[in-house]
């Protein structure tokens, strides 16, 4: 029996509400025009629902079909037994969890990347953390750079998302007062950031070759300069 016009309209309204609910946690900026897709765009499979920064297997259709698994994880990228790892990876890519994403817009992620670059670029990373953590840090920085650079390759991100659930390490999280302290410290550091003594594109090749006294004095600021350079390149590419 064919549905009446009123029944079809009610189904349409229900689908519209469900789409709005399921996309409520997804940042608008992730979509091409900075707005979440409408039900009409989804019905017609409009090009606007495709997100280049997300692998094919985790595109919008996957997110909507696996919303219950994302909900079961409480919209958090956690790696406890029983959690659907595919849904968790989708949370990373869709920037649903502000503590676990490859976004340069999330403060917690920025501070993690800054800390990771400082450690990774230091002359003695072992003074900060064990070798297994250094591998994690290196993989995270590469994944973040790949994402921020708007690369169409997902090699580094997929490598990190394979390492992350299998290992003992995770990104750092801060309490609210600690975030305030981090924000203040970064602001103070950026007020007097010296120019890099080498091209930013050669950061990883040159940074450890600098004199010890210079590294101790400027190493943190150089790390911030490199992150700033990567972010600015991304802005130029986007524009």
Task: Provide a quick synopsis of the model.
The protein has 239 residues and is an all-alpha fold. The protein contains 11 helices and no strands.
Low-confidence residue ranges: none
Rounded mean pLDDT score? 90
Helical content class: 55-70%
Please state the overall shape, judged from the principal axes of the Cα atoms. Answer: elongated
Whole-angstrom Rg: 21 Å
Q: Biggest β-sheet, characterized?
A: none
- Proportion of residues in β-strands: under 5%
Distance between the termini: 52 Å
The count of β-strands is 0
What is the overall number of helices? 11
Strand-and-helix sequence, N→C?
Answer: HHHHHHHHHHH
SS-based class: mainly alpha
Kindly describe this structure.
It is a single chain. With 239 residues, the protein is mainly α. 57% of the residues lie in helices and 0% in strands. Helix 6 packs across helix 7, helix 6 crosses helix 11 (212-238) and helix 7 (131-148) packs antiparallel against helix 8. The longest helix has 27 residues, at 212-238. It is elongated. The model has no long low-confidence stretch (mean pLDDT 90).
